[in-house]
Specification:
Blueprint lengths: L5 H15 L4 E7 L5 H12 L4 E5 L10 H7 L11 H10 L11 H15 L5 E6 L6 H11 L7 E8 L17 E3 L5 H12 L4 H11 L3 H9 L3 H4 L15 H14 L3 H13 L4 H15 L14 H5 L3 E4 L2 E4 L2 H9 L3 H16 L5 H14 L6 H16 L3 H13 L4 H17 L3 H16 L12 H9 L13 H18 L2 H11 L8 H18 L2 H17 L5 H14 L7 H10 L7 H13 L3 H18 L2 H17 L3 H18 L2 H18 L2 H13 L3 H17 L3 H13 L5 H17 L3 H7 L1 H10 L2 H18 L5 H16 L4 H17 L3 H18 L2 H13 L21 H11 L4 H8 L3 H15 L13
Parallel strand pairs: 1-4, 1-5, 2-3, 3-4
Antiparallel strand pairs: 6-7
Helix pairs in contact: 1-2, 3-6, 4-5, 5-6, 7-9, 8-9, 9-11, 11-15, 12-13, 12-15, 12-16, 13-16, 16-17, 17-18, 18-19, 19-20, 20-21, 20-23, 21-22, 21-23, 22-23, 23-24, 24-25, 25-26, 25-27, 26-27, 27-28, 27-29, 28-29, 29-30, 29-31, 30-31, 31-32, 31-33, 32-33, 32-45, 33-34, 33-35, 34-35, 35-36, ...
Length: 972
């Protein structure tokens, strides 16, 4: 029983019992050094025995080594990697240094692999993972673990982490464990402290005991160590005055001072070995021995006798400061390691690091396993400028990137910059650090590094402190409100382009999306002649930003620059042709011809044979030319590429595009499924803009189905995202909602704002034109309706899509009927009939049903009730299938008016058979109904197979089924 920790032990018991019952949890135990975190972890280990357990610990020496802690955690179960899905296994092997040197896997796939592996290990018995000194985990390991820890709800897994407070500030973009359940340890009270002293030292004179309790401040380690430094006469109170470490400001400081005193009385070779072991960090006896052999000679070449060796550690082991077992040196406590390192002179510490680097250089291990450690040891030994070392450190950072660890690469690139004399080279390395931070999602850090790089290039003497910057600083800089001069004209173009890419990404997420495209377009011209491939890549991104912002000017610039870059490139690039065609579509709704974009789409071919960039353009081309089935097929290919190649960062975008295609095809259940997955991924990786866009599309489904509350909430989220597509979809949804409920004035105003207001987006506004035409006609304002139609007509005729031509004929019929209801009846009917004929071979069932409804209304007013009833019943059937409640009610009212209401709709059936389920359960059921296995569903939803089974287990009784084969009836 741990003294004074009854509540904490109960909490550990709850965690372990819950995991055994299939309710996995993670717990962070935090507190100062010596407060009892490790003791609680050891208690959990004893209680969990004999079930399987994995352990690792962060070490200060490995904070800049990618996946070092994860490697230690999973090394005992490395043979189980083969059972993982191939993309996950490849990603995990690459991350841990067992795969290709340049794997390039998405870093989130590593987290999914960790989750799947831990779930597999817990299949037969509950699994406990213990992570001590988690404050020193390398960021790559921490990110991968956190991905898994947030998905344990149905697992037989308990994960307990010990985090020392005060080691690092909790910056929201770097501290990895924010949001996990936390148990904060505080000091023992005086009674508990006295009990602990009695257990360890027996009877102590009251005055001495009270003094120790005061000095220890309730810290268990301090109580033990401060009392251990006193002899029997001190403990008996016979040697006044009692002298403790009153000069130290904290109990932790006093404990470290006691350790330092105990080290100081050891022989010099022992102290040297302890410094080496502390500098090495992992306790590798062989490496320490090789370093010691060279260190002894280097520090004192005239000293008689052999160089220091492992036997010289014996006095430290006898003093209880270390243990040497199985080829590893274990310090009694991290404070002993800190005392051994910080207590040595700077020159000794530097010599230790150089000796370790030399030993690593001659290591029998593979270069990939030692090069990073050697670079870090050399960097630790250096306090000034060293260009050769800067090259080595930069190479280590690049290797971290290739292993999918941008979080680790960031500080390593920054260290390379610190070692660099040349200002332009230092700026280049800072730009690489900023780029890595951006890739890691550490946007505040990226903003700081980008600002430092900019100031360095500008020759500014005063570099702003990194502690106070945030992404808003980049917005101020880019918009010209910051007083710091712009980078010098002779600054390297590739560095400026990289810096612009970082600043653009920050603007896209936190500032002005339109500015993001302009930043990149401004940075590209200097690199077009020398790096056309890089230029085209940046222009593709710039065009994407411009598209989302509805910025035709930037698209025009991107097109001209892309054409120039193609002339310098070894081979033409399809990016330029897509930009050119997209520009034409976006710039002028009256004259734009989608034909060129359709040609580009045909030229791209199947997306499965291309990379993610070409796959993106294939979906764009299909959506922008109204090719819904082609768009869905291309989006499915895009999603498949992302899954197979592990591009989880791109998956949100692919799913967002798939959501749009499903909506246009009237597949609303699939809209919700794709959107749920997109939002799930976006939340996991911090893609807030994409999430807003997805919610904007979801608001359209809610508008069609008449759910005003949901539509308003989702539309406001899309509008609030500040990105033109999300805002435009949201505005379109609100207009469509008003139209469905008969509020034609509100509908017209909202839809007009899409065409002419600041939230408008040319392409999305074009899709809204038919609804504006209907609203204008119903308001008795046919001229307003007619004025909007050219935006849609040129595009519709250019696409040749049957659904678009059907909608166009419907609009002409409405306008003609409203302008001259008594004349041109034959022409009006011909247009309606032509519209219906077009829809018969077309997609977009919602538009088909609207055409049937409007035609039926016109026929009813013409007193042709039988024909009207046929059209209205067909419309009602489609509206019912779509769950379009307000539109169905309108149709039913028309049928009732002609006495045909009872035959309005098909037999009753639920609009959504999955309404009883949670969003996650519904998503799992849809995939299972489509034939996906638990493992396949898990890979798609970033869950473990066990969690998928858990959701199905909960869903079956709600649906009243007992097998997967019965699920198809609930999915349309």
């Amino acid at each position: 029983m741990l003294s004074g920790r009854g509540h904490e032990l109960e909490r550990l018991a709850e965690i372990l019992d819950a995991a055994a019952a299939g309710r996995g949890q993670a717990l962070v135990i935090s507190g100062e050094a010596g407060i009892g975190k490790t003791s609680l972890l050891e208690h959990a280990a004893r209680r969990h025995a004999p079930h399987p357990m994995l352990r690792t610990a962060g070490t200060e020496a490995e904070t800049d080594l990618p996946f070092a802690a994860l490697h230690a955690l999973l090394h005992p179960v490395r043979k189980r990697f083969d059972a993982l899905p191939a993309p996950q296994a490849d990603a995990l092997r690459t991350a841990l240094g067992h795969g290709p040197a340049e794997g390039g896997h998405d870093r989130f796939l590593v987290g999914l692999a960790v989750l799947t592996l831990l779930s597999d290990l817990s299949e037969e018995e509950p699994l406990l993972c213990l992570v001590d000194d988690a404050q020193w985990l390398d960021q790559a390991s921490a990110s991968a673990l956190l991905f898994a820890l947030r998905r344990l709800e149905a697992e037989r897994i308990a994960v307990i982490l010990g985090v020392r407070t005060g080691e690092h500030p909790r910056r929201l973009d770097q501290y990895p464990f924010t949001g996990l359940p936390e148990l904060t340890l505080t000091g023992l009270d005086p009674v508990q402290s006295a009990a602990l002293l009695a257990d360890h030292r027996g009877d102590i004179a009251p005055a001495v005991r009270d003094r120790i309790i005061i000095e220890a401040e309730g810290n268990p380690l301090a109580l033990i160590e401060l009392s251990a430094m006193l002899g029997p006469e001190h403990l008996a109170g016979k040697l006044p005055p009692l002298t403790l470490y009153t000069e130290a400001t904290s109990a932790v400081g006093r404990v470290e001072s006691t350790y330092r005193d105990r080290i100081d009385v050891l022989p010099e070779p022992t102290r040297l070995l302890l410094t080496l072991a502390a500098a090495e960090g992992t306790g590798d006896v062989d490496l320490i021995a090789r370093a010691a052999a060279s260190l002894g000679t280097a520090t004192n070449p005239t000293a008689p006798g052999p160089a220091p060796g492992i036997p010289d550690l014996a006095p430290a082991e006898a003093a209880g400061l270390i243990r040497v077992t199985s080829g590893t040196v274990h310090f009694r406590h991290p404070l002993v390691k800190a005392a051994a390192y910080r207590g040595a002179p700077l020159s000794t510490r530097q010599s230790a690091h150089r000796a370790l680097a030399a030993a690593l250089h001659h290591s029998p291990l593979e270069e990939r396993d030692t090069a990073d450690r050697r670079a870090h040891q050399l960097a630790a030994a250096t306090t000034g400028i060293d260009e050769d070392l800067a090259d080595l450190v930069e190479q280590a950072a690049t290797r971290a990137l290739h292993r999918g660890a941008p979080e680790v690469a960031t500080p390593v690139y920054e260290r390379a910059a610190q070692l660099t004399q040349d200002r332009t080279s230092r700026a280049r390395r800072l730009s690489l650090a900023a780029e890595a931070a951006c890739a890691a999602g550490q946007l505040t850090r990226a903003a700081e590094l980008a600002e430092r790089c900019r100031r360095l290039l500008a020759g500014s003497a005063g570099i702003r402190s990194a502690a106070g910057a945030d992404p808003a600083a980049i917005t101020a800089t880019a918009s010209g409100t910051d007083a710091t001069p712009d980078p010098a004209a002779d600054a390297p173009a590739d560095t400026l382009a990289r810096l612009a890419a970082v600043r653009a990404a920050l603007e896209f997420e936190h500032g002005d999306p339109a500015l993001a495209g302009r930043l990149l377009a401004d940075a590209v011209p200097p690199i077009v002649p020398t790096a056309p491939a890089q230029a085209l890549t940046l222009l593709g991104a710039a065009a994407g930003y411009a598209w989302f912002a509805g910025d035709g000017d930037v698209l025009r610039r991107c097109r001209r620059l892309a054409e120039d870059a193609e002339r310098h490139a070894a081979a033409p690039d399809r990016i330029s042709s897509v930009i050119r065609a997209t520009e034409q579509l976006l710039l002028d709704g009256h004259t734009a011809d989608p034909g060129p974009l359709r040609a580009v789409m045909a030229d791209l071919g199947p997306a499965t044979s291309a990379g993610t960039t070409a796959a993106t353009y294939a979906v764009f081309a299909a959506l922008r030319t109204g090719g819904d089935p082609e768009a869905l097929a291309a989006a499915d290919d895009f999603v498949d590429i992302c899954r197979r190649q592990g591009h989880i960062s791109e998956l949100t975008h692919a799913l967002q595009l798939k959501t749009q295609a499903h909506f246009f095809l009237g597949q609303f259940a699939e809209v919700e499924a794709a959107a749920a997955e997109a939002l799930h991924v976006a939340e996991a990786i911090g893609h807030t803009r994409r999430a807003c866009h997805v919610r904007g599309v979801l608001s359209l489904t809610a508008a069609v189905q008449g759910d005003a509350e949901l539509c308003e909430r989702l539309a406001r989220s899309g509008i609030g995202g500040g990105l033109a597509p999300g805002a435009s979809w949201g505005g379109y949804a609100l207009g469509l909602l008003a139209l469905g409920h008969g509020d034609h004035r509100t509908a017209a105003d909202r839809l007009t704002a899409l065409l002419d207001g600041p939230a408008g987006h040319t392409v999305i506004a074009r899709f809204a034109v038919p609804s504006l035409v209907e609203a204008g006609v119903r308001l008795g304002e046919p001229d307003r309706a007619a004025a909007a139609l050219p935006r849609f007509e040129k595009w519709a005729r250019g696409t040749g899509r049957p659904w678009a031509l059907g909608v166009l004929e419907r609009c002409h019929a409405l306008i003609a009927a409203s302008q001259d209801p008594g004349q041109g009846i034959h022409d009006i009917e011909l247009r309606f009939r032509t519209a219906v004929d077009h829809h018969g071979s077309a997609t977009r069932p919602f538009e088909h049903a609207r055409t049937l409804l409007l035609y039926g209304e016109w026929l009813r007013r013409a007193r042709r009730r039988g024909e009207a009833a046929d059209r209205l019943r067909a419309a009602a059937e489609i509206f019912h299938q779509l769950g379009a409640v307000p539109w169905l009610e309108r149709t039913t009212a028309e049928l009732t008016a002609i006495g045909a209401g009872r035959r309005a709709v098909a037999p009753d059936r639920p609009i959504d058979g999955l309404a009883k389920l949670t969003a996650q359960e519904a998503h799992v059921v849809r995939l299972a109904a489509g034939g996906a296995s638990n493992a396949e569903i898990a890979a798609q939803l970033f869950l473990s197979p066990r969690t998928v089974g858990y959701h199905l287990y909960n869903a079956f009784p709600k649906l009243g089924v007992t097998s997967r084969g019965e699920l198809a009836q609930f999915v349309t």
